[in-house]
Structures are given as structure tokens and as C-alpha cells.
Amino acid sequence: MVGKSANLAVINNHTFEATKAVNLHNYDISSALQTTLKFTELIAIFCSKIANKIPHSAYVYINKEFDLEVKSGVFTRHSCNYALKVEQQQLGELKLMSNHRFSDADLQLLEAMLCCLIYPLRNATLFHQALKMAYTDPLTQANNRSSFNDCINREISLATRNAKKLSLIFFDIDHFKAINDTYGHDCGDITLASSAKWIKENLRDSDIIFRYGGEEFVILLSDTDTNGAKLLAERIRASIERHTIAYGMDTIKITASLGVSTLGDNDTRESFVKRADEAMYAAKHNGRNQVVSAN
User: Fold this and answer.
1) Of all helices (H) and strands (E), which one includes residue 261?
2) For 47-94, what is each residue's pLDDT tens digit?
3) SS3 (DSSP) at 278
4) Hey, which CATH number is domain 4-134, 3.30.450.40, 2.60.40.1120, 3.30.70.3270, 3.30.160.100?
5) 169 and 276 in contact (C-beta within 8 Å)?
6) Global pTM?
7) Contact assessment for residue 121 and residue 92, using Cβ atoms and an 8 Å cutoff
8) What cofactor(s) does the depicted protein rely on (predicted)?
9) CA triplet 126, 129, 133: central angle to 5 degrees?
10) Which of 69, 87, 215, 234 is catalytic?
């Protein structure tokens, strides 16, 4: 039977004040944790700093809010688990693993030392929440144009360095202005949010969707060639066509036109994006509700 201790680390002012002095006196943890706002670095620093006092073979940190899982070390049979929170704010879960069962003294010491981790994790959470809000379109919950501008530069650099394929899909809702004019902007907002949801349902974990502007979305596909991008674009197009929006007493069928481009050896960011955009407009010109590839 696997040895396991499930624990909940809940920090409050009384707990923090009671343990702060002994932690900071014996271990140089707090100052080291002030050097970064990255979750991966915070957990690595913390686990490194406590290793001499609480030997462990591996750690796992999970933060569902940011879809993050950090692992390091050799997984063994005994573990202790902590759900980290301050007041009502969830800060993720930390698991330490060991070849030997953690003693009560180990757990008491660990719980005291976790007080040094809680507030840096809260600072990191607040920072990343603000960053997420700055990069997220509030209506569709897709990434926004600013996020796209940052992300595409990074992905082009990675694709070029690693000799990987990179593709783009431009997506535009057909006759969107007519929907707004006929049914109003509330219906238009529902159409946008629903379209984003249906697109996401067809994406892989590695694919990234952005609201590019108005009724236009962009999907960035790492490690994907032209054929793969065209197949995905067609799956998205068919999914949109199958759905119906109910608004009041009306049902509204929508379709979309999609353009695909794949990064070429001589492409700049501008030419890569322009070819996908032009392919999407070609789909519009050719009758809408179709996929056109620029490659």
C-alpha cells in the first residue's frame, strides 16, 4: 500500500506570525522567494531550500487556474499533499514524495516552512491573473490581439530554430453585420461567444485561439503543416455549420470562411499573417462557408 498523507495548508495571520520568526531565522527561504513571480521558479527554489531539512525525492505542483503542472525528481511510494490557500484564494497544490514515510516532525516542520511560500505564491497569482486579464478578450475568453502579437513572434522563432512547421487559420463569421443589424448587438455578442466556444472544442491543447478583431479569429498551430491545418480548418467550418443559435423566438444558422497559411522559409511575420488573411478573403469571395489555403 502506498504511504500517503493528505494535508491542507491554510495560512492566516495567526499561523503566519507564529511561524514567521523561526522560519526566517533558520532558513534563508523568504528572501530567495522574492526574486521571481514565476510559479515554476518559486516551487523549485522552495523545494531546493527545504531539501536538507525535509529530504524528498520529487515534487509536483498543480495550479488548475493557470492549467499548470510542474514536476521534478524521482517519483517514489510515499507522499504528502498540501492544498495551498490564503484566506479564500486558492494557490494550487504541492506534493512532496519520498522513499520513506514522512514523520510527524517532518510534516510539522514542512507546514511551518510553507508559510514562507504562501505569500510569494499569492503575489505570483495576482500577477498572472492581471496578465491573463490583459491578454484575454472578455466577451469570448479567447486571447486578444495584444496576446497574438507577442505569441506569434515567439512561435515563429521556435519554429525556425527547431525546424518545425507553423500554421495559421484565419476565421471570419459570414454575414456578421447582417446578424447585428437584424437581431441587435446582444445577438451578435452571443454569436461571437458561441463561435469561440465551438472553435475551442475542435482544438488541441497546443493550439491557441485569438480574437483578432470584430468577428475575426486567428488560430495558431504549432508543429502543424498545411495539410494538418486544412483538416483542422475544415473540421471547425463543419462544426460551425452544424450548430444553431437560438435568440428569442428565432433560430439563426451561421457559417464561417477560413483561410490557411503555413510559415515558409522566406516568410516574415507580416507575410505569414497576410497570406492567411488573403486566403480567408478568397473564401469569402468564392462563396463563403469554405476553407482556402494560401499554400
Assistant:
1) strand 256-262
2) 999 999 999 999 999 999 998 999 999 999 999 999 998 888 899 999
3) helix
4) 3.30.450.40
5) yes
6) 0.71
7) yes
8) Mg(2+)
9) 140
10) 215
